[in-house]
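Propose amino acids for all 387 sites.
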């Protein structure tokens, strides 16, 4: 599978896009089917005709205790779960932005993609979480034994508990396919990020070399080498090191989102200073710029709380503490080393001097020549208008 992921990223981007299109379709169909199945089991439509309702919310309970007992233990468990659940989202929103350089009509299509991404989070992730809590108890042996693989998926456990034969194997296959898709996407993200850094002089120039088809081949190869770390899960001792690396990724995600908030606040400040109207912004959110200040506070706190469980006497571990918090001083050191190497430059570009114009006219002219594809709603209105 790893070879296939690397091979796909070495091919022209259209092959990556086509593959992800089918992967995404498969995942969407699967999650929709699982949501429907959960509703059916909820009302007793399974082989045993036993109505589940919200029984697992009462026994063994919707929230378990962690480290301490009582409500405090349930709060600790909820906060720990929140921090752990960030990993699937880490750098996922950035995928929307990274594809801007290789997507058709980015000013028109990226806002649509971003809106779809938001609603998919609401329906598939939150809806999926509620559905899992309905069909799978939190004390299921496959979940609490520490086993790995698709067999430990709560969807698979819930389907087995319902007595539906054969479907768990299908879900196993889809889970593996979803993992393949995730590896494919994140290798694309890593290689394009490395390529962008090389183009702006922040990484060795060799990484901006591309094939005739526009694939940054050396950036893909260098990024793919890190995928070998996945084999650390084969050994139980090495798996601990792998979990430390995951903690570092979590910290990096929080820091990157804090930086994104700061950058957006400065961007909006530059727009105001240079009298750029809000109507000129192709992508707008009703929460902005207030949303950026909220994200600064929330992700700043989550970054500080990333390894909070190690501060309980029974859970103290130097290794866990370092894996949870080493990313913060490392980021600060790297930043100040960068500032020292570029000490001749100003610490921050003035809002009056932020370049909001270069390349904009060319991009607008290019998109004006492209015929936008007519959506289903527009086609429906056109046909209704004719009749």
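Proposal:
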């Amino acid at each position: 599978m790893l070879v296939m992921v690397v091979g796909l990223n070495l091919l022209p981007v259209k092959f990556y896009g086509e593959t992800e299109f089918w992967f995404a379709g498969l995942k969407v169909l699967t999650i929709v089917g699982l949501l429907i199945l959960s509703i059916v089991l909820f009302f007793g439509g399974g082989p045993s005709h036993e109505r589940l309702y919200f029984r697992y919310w009462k026994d063994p309970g919707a929230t378990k205790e962690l480290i301490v007992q009582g409500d405090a233990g349930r709060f600790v468990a909820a906060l720990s779960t929140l921090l752990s659940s960030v990993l699937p989202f880490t750098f996922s929103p950035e995928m929307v932005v990274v594809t801007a350089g290789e997507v058709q009509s980015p000013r028109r299509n990226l806002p649509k993609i971003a809106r779809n991404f938001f609603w998919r989070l609401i329906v598939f992730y939150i809806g999926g979480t509620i559905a899992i809590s309905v069909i799978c108890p939190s004390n299921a042996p496959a979940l609490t034994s520490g086993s790995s693989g698709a067999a430990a998926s709560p969807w698979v456990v819930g389907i087995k508990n319902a007595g539906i034969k054969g479907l768990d194997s299908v879900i196993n296959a889809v889970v593996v396919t979803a993992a393949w898709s995730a590896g494919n996407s994140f290798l694309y993200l890593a290689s394009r990020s490395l390529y962008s850094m090389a183009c702006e002089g922040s990484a060795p120039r060799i990484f901006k070399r591309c094939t005739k088809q526009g694939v940054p081949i050396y950036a893909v190869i260098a990024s793919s080498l890190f995928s070998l770390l996945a084999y650390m899960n084969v050994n139980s001792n090495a798996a601990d090191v792998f979990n430390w690396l995951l903690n570092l990724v979590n910290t990096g995600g929080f820091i990157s989102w804090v930086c994104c908030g700061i950058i957006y606040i400065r961007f909006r400040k530059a727009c105001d200073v240079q009298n750029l109207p809000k109507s000129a912004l192709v992508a707008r959110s009703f929460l902005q710029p207030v949303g950026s200040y909220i994200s600064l506070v929330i992700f700043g706190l989550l970054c500080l709380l990333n390894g909070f469980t190690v501060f309980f006497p029974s859970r103290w571990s130097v290794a866990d503490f370092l894996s949870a918090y080493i990313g913060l001083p490392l980021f600060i050191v790297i930043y100040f080393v960068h500032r020292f190497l570029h000490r001749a430059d100003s610490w921050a570009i003035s809002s009056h001097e932020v370049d909001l114009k270069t390349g904009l006219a060319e991009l607008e002219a290019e998109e004006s020549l492209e015929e936008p594809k007519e959506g289903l709603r527009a086609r429906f209105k056109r046909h209704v208008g004719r009749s």
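Residues 58 and 137 are 10 Å apart (CA to CA). The mean pLDDT is 80.
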